[in-house]
Amino acid sequence: MMKGIKLGVPIFLIVFSGLFFISSLQLPKANLGNPNAPLYFPAGISILMLLLSVVYLFQELKHAAKDNKEIRQLFSGRTPKLIAATIGLGGCYALVFDQIGFLLSTAFFLGGLLFFINGRKKWLINCIVAVSFSFLTWYAFSQLLGVSLP
Predict the structure, then answer these.
(1) How far is CA 21 from CA 13, 30, 36, 86, 146, in A?
(2) Which of these, 62, 89, 133, 144, is most buried using a 10 Å CB contact count?
(3) How confident is the model over 106-122, as a mean pLDDT?
(4) Distances (CA, A) of 102 to 86, 93, 96, 114
(5) pLDDT of residue 136
(6) pTM of the complete model
């Protein structure tokens, strides 16, 4: 099982970066300036990610026979639940982001994650951190940097 996990991650990354590259080629062309300018950054990132994933795959193939203690620890204890909760909350965050906006969705996402990690006993700290981080991030981007957030 460990060998499958060790090789599965780089293979997943290769497939993901390939799909990312294909989807970056479908970006609309710019009306002003260089028409392909919106394509350069995502295509470059996906190519870099693809190359690094191939290097990662070769490294894992080289060390596939070794028993990896870190992977065993990854799937023991509370860690799988934390990973699943983070993925689930991240999916919910992505779904509600456009509907309720950056400030509320970030506060709910971070609050949910902190409640899952810290538990209910630290509810006040969780709420303060979630709300204050969301507000400060919103303030920094929208007010100080002039970036429009939904």
Answers:
(1) 12, 18, 14, 25, 30
(2) 89
(3) 92
(4) 18, 9, 9, 18
(5) 95
(6) 0.60
Task: Round to whole Å and give the CA distance between 87 and 28.
Answer: 29
By the 8 A CB rule, do 57 and 11 touch? Answer: yes
- Element spanning 115, H or E: helix 79-118
Mean pLDDT on 47-72:
85
110 CB burial (10 A radius; 0-12, 13-18, 19+): buried
CA distance 92 to 105: 9
Using the CB atoms, write b or e for 133-146: b if 16+ within 10 Å: ebeebbeeeeeeee
Instruction: Answer yes or no: are the C-beta atoms of 55 and 9 closer than 8 Å.
Output: no
- Whether pLDDT at 146 is above 80: yes
